[in-house]
Amino acid sequence: MATPTLWELAEAVETRAKTIGLRSKAERPGSIDPPFLMVGVPPIPDYRATFGRGEVIIPNWPLTVLTSAEVDRVGQKKLAEYLSWTGPKSLIRALENEPTLGGVVIDLSCQSSRPLGVEEVGLIGYFGGELLITVEVSGEED
Questions:
Q1: What are the C-alpha distances in Å from 116 to residues 15, 67, 96?
Q2: Range of the domain at 93
Q3: How confident is the model at residue 119, as a pLDDT?
Q4: Interior CA angle at 23 toward 20 and 29, to 5°?
Q5: Is residue 59 assigned to a domain?
Q6: What's the rounded Cα separation, in Å, for the pair 115 and 82?
Q7: Degrees (nearest 5) of the Cα angle 6, 53, 132?
Q8: What confidence score (pLDDT) does residue 25 get?
Q9: Model pLDDT, residue 36
Q10: What is the pairing mode between strands 55-68 and 107-121?
Q11: 13, 17, 23, 121: which one has the fewest Cβ atoms less than 10 Å from its Cβ?
Q12: Which residue, 93, 70, 69, is CA-closest to 81?
């Protein structure tokens, strides 16, 4: 298994999110139509510690779920559905039921989640939350 690029990782997560009805783009858009998952490029806290052992471990990669244009009961209910550990709209279940992301990674695990309040996208505030995941990928080159 060759090492995927960061962009390929983001696209693999986006593909899983779409299976539960979350719209998503691997890049940060100028405007969105919620419910929406912002994936983005994962942070790499220490390249020297992360690479070079045949594996790449990317801890605490934030995925942002945006559910409504205001903080209301409907938006909070949707966020609870997406960040729940079970149910048909569970992002955790969608990711962990396919922990290799279709063969792109060795393993994926969901670490934690938290509500964010209002996040701005294109000058509009959206209610949402954040899910932190950890992925392990092959560090082998082709």
A1: 23, 11, 22
A2: 6-138
A3: 83
A4: 155
A5: yes
A6: 11
A7: 45
A8: 73
A9: 94
A10: unpaired
A11: 23
A12: 93
Query: Does 13 reside within a domain?
Result: yes
Residue 21 has what pLDDT? 92
Element holding 70 (H helix, E strand): none
Note the residue count of the chain: 142
Give the C-alpha distances (Å, rounded to integers) separating 90 from 84, 86, 120. 5, 5, 23
List the CATH number of the domain containing 113.
3.30.2000
Q: Show the DSSP H helices in 69-125 as ranges.
A: 73-83, 91-96
Q: Is 47 left (phi over 0), alpha (psi -120 to 50) or beta?
A: alpha
DSSP letter at 17? H
Domain assignment of residue 99, yes or no: yes
**How many domains does the chain contain in total?**
1
Q: Give me the sheet containing 107-121, strands edge to edge.
A: 23-25, 36-38, 55-68, 124-138, 107-121
**Residue written as tokens 């990711």?**
95
Residue 106 lies in a domain: yes
